[in-house]
């Protein structure tokens, strides 16, 4: 699932988004290698006196934030002013996420934030969203959701773990079906059709959620406002 550009490009994007964080803010902390650069940059700012609280979106971002010395809070106590998160593909401002199987919590935190800053390298852009859409499902719904997405024209594949026998199990104890629809002409319709299937916890289509995209290249960073 994972694809991506150079570490330098990712670092530039992550650091650029971290620059947008001000004193006193609550920050949604995304998951993945590009968001990790933003978390590390925020940790350095915290060391230098920045006063923020973070809301992690995964085990990985919680661990990174803890190591970076960022104080943590939850959505029960605070609303994020800003969320910084990566993406697997970007087209027309819409995203496919979930390469790290964290998209359910990411969507909750990203959607709750006043502003979502997406951090990507420039290899993530496409004319149309066309990579498989990760769909987190309750384990009992594996067959029924697979049948239903097949009926919607997709070819679903249960995501397998790499250093464990069997499937990937998400931070929420669920499974992931990677659903290949080919090019997605209407992301809104696709998002609604997936969301209404019984047993679907969350899918990786993030439609109309991003406010800014910080795009890292090997030389510079550019910011696209949406
Ligand atoms: C995790 C995600 C990640 O944000 C996405 O996979 C991008 O990761 P990376 O920055 O490592 O390419 O959605 O579920």
Summed up, what is this model?
With 226 residues, the chain is α/β, with parallel strands linked by helices.
Protein model, in words:
It is a single chain. With 226 residues, the chain is of the alpha/beta class. The chain has 2 domains: 7-126 and 207-225, Rossmann fold, CATH 3.40.50; 133-203, Alpha-Beta Plaits (2-Layer Sandwich). Helices cover 29% and strands 26% of the residues. It has 6 helices and 14 strands. It has helices spanning 7-18, 33-47, 59-68, 103-112, 142-151, 187-195, and strands at residues 26-29, 53-56, 71-72, 82-85, 89-91, 94-96, 115-121, 133-137, 155-158, 175-180, 200-203, 205-206, 212-216, 221-225. Strands 3-2-1-4-7-13-14 form a 7-stranded mixed beta sheet, with helices on both faces. It has a 4-stranded antiparallel beta sheet with strand order 9-10-8-11. A 3-stranded antiparallel beta sheet has the order 5-6-12, with helices on one face. Helix 3 links the parallel strand 2 and strand 3. It is globular and about 55 Å long. The model has no long low-confidence stretch (mean pLDDT 97). The structure holds ribulose-5-phosphate. Ribulose-5-phosphate binds at residues 2, 4, 30-35, 85-88, 97-103, 106.
């Amino acid at each position: 699932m994972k694809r991506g550009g150079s570490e330098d490009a990712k670092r530039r994007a992550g650091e650029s988004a971290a620059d947008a964080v001000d004193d006193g803010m609550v920050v949604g902390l995304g998951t993945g290698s590009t968001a990790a650069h933003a978390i590390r940059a925020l940790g350095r700012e915290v060391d230098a006196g920045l006063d923020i609280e973070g809301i992690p979106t995964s085990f990985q971002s919680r661990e990174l934030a803890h190591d970076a010395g960022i104080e943590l809070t939850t959505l029960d106590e605070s609303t994020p002013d800003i969320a910084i998160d990566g993406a697997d593909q970007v087209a027309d401002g819409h995203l496919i996420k979930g390469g790290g199987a964290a998209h359910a919590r990411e969507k909750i935190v990203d959607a709750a934030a006043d502003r979502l800053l997406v951090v990507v390298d420039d290899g993530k852009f496409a004319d149309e969203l066309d990579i498989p859409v990760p769909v987190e499902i309750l384990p009992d719904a594996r067959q029924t959701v697979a049948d239903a997405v097949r009926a919607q024209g997709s070819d679903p594949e249960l995501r397998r773990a790499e250093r464990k026998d069997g499937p990937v199990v998400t931070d929420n104890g669920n499974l992931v079906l990677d659903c290949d629809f080919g090019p997605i002409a209407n992301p809104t319709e696709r998002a609604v059709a997936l969301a209404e299937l019984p047993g679907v916890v969350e899918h990786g289509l993030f439609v109309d959620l991003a406010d800014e995209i910080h795009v890292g290249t090997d030389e510079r960073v550019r910011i696209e406002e949406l």
